[in-house]
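TICKET: design request
STATUS: open
ATTACHED STRUCTURE:
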């Protein structure tokens, strides 16, 4: 029988140290991933200029805009799974996500550098990880590239009127005045939140629709109405910066109405306008899709009660991660319903 190695205080200490190192490595890895995605709570210290530039573009925010393109393609009723259409859609997603959303996010960070110094000092600009001239250059590169891609998509789609280019110009202008003085729409809780909601829903949805079909007034109005639910989602983002907004006099809804009331306004907007979209689907006899949309609203209400309404400041990220998949699935259901109705 072999003798077992005795466990000494020194060996226990070594095991504890190694375990602690492993935990720290995992935490650091997660923090770096959050940093690259542009998420709340990341750590500073990145030195690679390309990773810093990516962090400025906040890739986590590209997802709903890319999804909006998918919804627009569905609502056109004309999307088919061909190689050409997949390439078109991919280029359109590049336009809506990395280029235009990236441009808007960096512009916002540039004009919010004083607020971020209070709320998120680890961000690249307030932490000094990148210079302001470098930031301005990146803004211009993304904007020009976005407009060129939009023009190319109009040509590829055969649009007589440059619809996609027009949407890109309007969207980039709204994105600019959202953050930049003297208008700085985000200073007004309602206007700023709606502008953000429209940026996430109306602009990418209409772009995807215009790429594969003829954009019409019904789709524009319906997506602008849907953006009122997006307004509620935009308000969620205001809770993480309420202290800095209050100190600098920005009238976000949590500052205007208080944390509790703003949280209630937020969830009512999200649920009510999705419900009204479901009612519209019933009115055009797309009853099955309306029922699916209602079923997708129910878990959102549950998660609002579990997380957001109880602690909107600390649970904002948890709520969005758990509830937003149901909202974006509802958008796709609506897009498919509209595409189905267009073919009848």
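STATUS: resolved
RESOLUTION: sequence designed for all positions
ATTACHED SEQUENCE:
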């Amino acid at each position: 029988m072999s003798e077992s190695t005795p466990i000494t205080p020194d060996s226990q200490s070594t095991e504890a140290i190694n375990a602690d190192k492993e935990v720290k490595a995992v935490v650091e890895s997660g923090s770096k991933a959050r940093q690259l995605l542009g998420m709340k709570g990341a750590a500073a210290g990145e030195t690679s200029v390309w990773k810093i530039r990516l962090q400025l573009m906040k890739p986590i925010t590209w997802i709903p805009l890319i999804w909006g393109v998918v919804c627009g393609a569905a609502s056109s009723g004309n999307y088919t799974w061909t190689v050409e259409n997949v390439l078109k859609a991919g280029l359109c997603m590049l336009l809506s996500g990395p280029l235009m959303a990236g441009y808007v996010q960096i512009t916002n960070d540039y004009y919010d550098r004083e607020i971020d110094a209070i709320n998120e000092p680890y961000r690249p600009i307030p932490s000094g990880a990148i210079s302001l001239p470098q930031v301005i250059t990146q803004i211009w590169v993304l904007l020009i590239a976005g407009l060129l891609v939009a023009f190319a998509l109009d040509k590829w789609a055969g649009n007589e009127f440059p619809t996609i280019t027009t949407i890109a110009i309007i969207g980039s202008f709204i994105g600019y005045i959202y953050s930049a003085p003297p208008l700085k729409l985000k200073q007004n809780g309602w206007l700023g939140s709606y502008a953000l909601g429209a940026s996430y829903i109306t602009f990418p949805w209409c772009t995807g629709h215009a790429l594969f079909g003829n954009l019409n007034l019904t789709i524009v109005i319906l997506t602008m109405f849907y953006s009122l639910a997006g307004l509620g989602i935009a308000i969620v983002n205001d809770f993480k910066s309420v202290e800095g907004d209050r100190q600098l006099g920005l009238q976000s809804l949590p500052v205007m109405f208080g944390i509790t009331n703003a949280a209630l306004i937020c969830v009512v907007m999200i649920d009510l306008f999705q419900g009204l979209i479901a009612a519209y689907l019933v009115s055009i006899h797309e009853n099955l899709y309306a029922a699916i949309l209602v079923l997708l609203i129910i878990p959102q209400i549950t998660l609002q009660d579990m997380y957001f309404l109880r602690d909107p400041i600390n649970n904002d990220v948890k709520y969005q991660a758990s509830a937003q998949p149901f909202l974006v699935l509802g958008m796709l259901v609506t897009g498919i319903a509209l595409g189905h109705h267009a073919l009848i």
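CLOSING REMARK: The chain is about 75% helix and 0% strand. Residues 46-343 form a domain with the Farnesyl Diphosphate Synthase fold (CATH 1.10.600).
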